[in-house]
Amino acid sequence: MGRFVALVILLIPIFLAGFGIKLMRDAFFHIIQPPFSSISLQFLAGIVLFFIGFAFIGGFILHRDRKNGKVAPRFAKKEG
């Protein structure tokens, strides 16, 4: 059950990043989605959603690799 919950928690930022990419693509082709009033606002929201999802997944992978001791010394957590 715990692994399933972890998978669901990881799928949320993946979908956020995917939706961000979709918003940026639609803004590039001048397709305005309903909650947005301008192309630039839609593109900015897409960038924000993409980077939030990307940062969450990257942070999760870094945390997991630090815990397992699989990171380069410069990324290892400083003691003290």
What number of domains?
A: 1
| Rg computed from alpha carbons, rounded to a whole number of angstroms | 17 Å
Q: First CA to last CA: what distance?
A: 35 Å
Main sheet characteristics: none
Percent of residues in beta strands?
under 5%
Shape: elongated
Tally of extended strands?
A: 0
What structural class is derived from the secondary structure elements? mainly alpha
Listing every helix as H and every strand as E from the N terminus to the C terminus, the arrangement reads: HH
Proportion in helices: over 70%
Average of per-residue pLDDT values: 93
- The number of helical runs is 2
Organism: Alkalicoccobacillus gibsonii
Protein name: DUF2627 domain-containing protein
Pfam families: DUF2627
Transmembrane segments: 41-62
Topology:
Layout: H1 2-28, H2 39-68
Helix pairs in contact: 1-2
Molecular structure report:
- With 80 residues, this protein is mostly helical.
- The chain has one domain.
- Helices cover 71% and strands 0% of the residues.
- It contains 2 helices and no strands.
- Helix 1 runs antiparallel to helix 2.
- The longest helix has 30 residues, at 39-68.
- The protein is elongated, with a radius of gyration of 17 Å.
